[in-house]
Amino acid sequence: MAYIKSRKHARILPPLGSAAAATLVALSLPVAAQTSTNTLKEVRVEGAASDVKVDNSANPKFTAPLVNTPQTIQIIPETLMREQGATTLTEALRNSPGVGTFFLGENGTTNTGDSIYMRGFDSSASIFVDGIRDTGSVSRDTFNIEQVEVVKGPAGTDTGRTSPTGYINLITKKPQFADSFLGSVSIGSDDFKRATIDWNKVLSGPDGIGSAFRLNAFTLDADAAGRDVVNNKRWGIAPSLAFGLNSPTRFYFDVLYVKQNNIPDGGVPTIGLPGYTSPDTNRRFLTTASRVDSSNFYGTQWDFDNVTQTMFTARVEHDFTPDVTLRNTFRYGKTEQDYMLTSFMGSSANLVTRVPSQPSTWTIARSNPTNKDQENTLLTNQTNVSAKFNTGSIAHTMNAGVELIHEEQDSAGYYGQNATVFGIPGIRNSGSWPAANLYTPNPYVNGYLRLPNGTTTAGTTDTVGLYAFDTAKLSERWMLTGGLRFDHYSTDYSASALNATSGVLTPSAFSVSGSEWTGKLGVVYKPTDNSSVYLAYGTGAQPPGGNNFTLAAGGTGNSANRTDFLPQKTKSWELGTKWDLLEKKLAVSAALFRTDVSNEVVQDAVSGNYYQTGEKRVEGLELAAVGALTDRWSVTTGFTHQNAKVLRGPSVLADGGSVLAYTPENAFTAWTTYQLPIGLGLGIGARYNGKMYRGTDGAIGTPAYVEDYWVFDAMAGYRINKNLDLQFNVYNLTDKEYVAAINKSGYRYTPGAPRTYRLTANFQF
Predict the structure, then answer these.
(1) How far is it, in rounded angstroms, from Cα 563 to Cα 494?
(2) Residue 634 or 351, more confident
(3) Can the keyword Iron be found in this entry's annotation (predicted)?
């Protein structure tokens, strides 16, 4: 049986053999739509192509149009997400090649929310909303998102601490100077139900101060495609108010409130997948055991993932002159997550084969429930000024500012299975779930009592960041773009550990502080007014404890987060070119990149001690084409080739290789729409992810990698009248079976969604 196969047993396309082949495919495909971040959606003219090309980032730290910015930046607009029916950030990021949720989790734990890998590194903690960090392992909905900006390469100067290979910035919707009412109602496979509204109302017109109100809201209730029991239920509201839209001083006030009540997914055993073998000599027959049904759910009816997100943002902008603008943004945000997920014990020792010849009798032990009761709080204030000015013959576009950031993370612990519980009369242990039948698991069980054990963790990080960016136009053909940032951080971490024998809680506390300089510099040559060739260099830094507030004693302490460790360092190079073609309707780009990461913390396989001697490198090629090919035909497509490897330190792979885990060597994505003059629009998309290796934690006998796969999607939309259109989406046209994510040990995986359908009615007034 093929590891990843079509349920129809037919291979649709061969794997990509070279970057050249992928480029030809990419440039022959087309895509969907987008509108400017400064205007609301208007009724589309019948037969007109969608506009997917974005010329400028909404982030003021980028001081030049995208064609003149010496860095790979991809912008995914709302219209493209709407046409594809993308409801989460994870789904939207399918438009960025090589970026995705490929990692299921460590050992018995399971990632929740947007667990993003990008260019070889985990970027889950490098997600921002309007330029401000958004913490919490949650699934972000797209209902209030104008566009998603994927910034690849050096990012330390932009954001301070971040992933070595980039970050993701979500741009939210703002009130505009036009009345409109948009909405949608969707139904689909797996009991999918969703409704959204986007209402904008002008409160005072051009003769007044220019104020407007905007309300975005949604509700969703859907089972996970192809999975039993797993369910996603959430709703949210995002009102915003703006004053002074036609004046030099503008005020914006935004509130976001989202509630999620989900049943999480712990994955499926890899038993039966190619690459699975039994290390137990007495159970060699498991090597040829049948694959379990990919819809099987091994959790329990009691599992839950409850999330509450609250965010308030106040922003003021003042134009001193047409060329000088001051902005100040204040934000308070809180994410609360209460979570319990039951998975299964992956090793063959936890698989009971009562009658080896009768698989129907085989059971697998359920794991200690993963309990998470965590609260992330953020207070931040950003002040920056944008200015255009000349120094002699050199024209400058500058942005400079200061960021004051206070972050908190607090959590509470719970007893695991069969744990002795102290101080609770009449209760001796927290119990355990009964084992699950391997091939027909029953989630409706009892036995585990969820009890807090009194342990807590609390972390705070205070950061002061100063930065400046400038694009200097040296001549008609030469430009220089650079940025410099200084961060001073101070992190305090405290925790209480439980002695399992005495029941005594032992507190501990650690602190670390330091300062970091990061910078980037790019030289841009413009062969024509609408093109550029550039060479860029940038740096980044990640302090001890990273984004998880987990610190441990310095010196001889055996921890990956020792306070005496130095910050992880990043150096990145990029050589690229960007061209606006077809009367600036189509943007094409190509870039060669290299990122070196040093001061990586690695663990000695013999002693188990941690050392800061690791070095990693990611290098490769990225190609993209976005825009309109004709008046009716639009396209967005991208291809990446990545060579990611360990330069120094122990292997991170199960097979001892040096390639970085969860990083496809080749990846491709495309979406294209064609608008017929009769009001009918047709769209088709393709995604390819190459072979990916998993990490290692000493587990043996499990698949060391997942094979490559193609997935195809399609859309048909018909405009009934100026107020209503219908849209029909089909996902995974060929009903391909594939591994979407795999955990570090290789015992568990998340199956890719099977073929599903969705019908949406979009209305606008």
Answers:
(1) 13
(2) 634
(3) yes
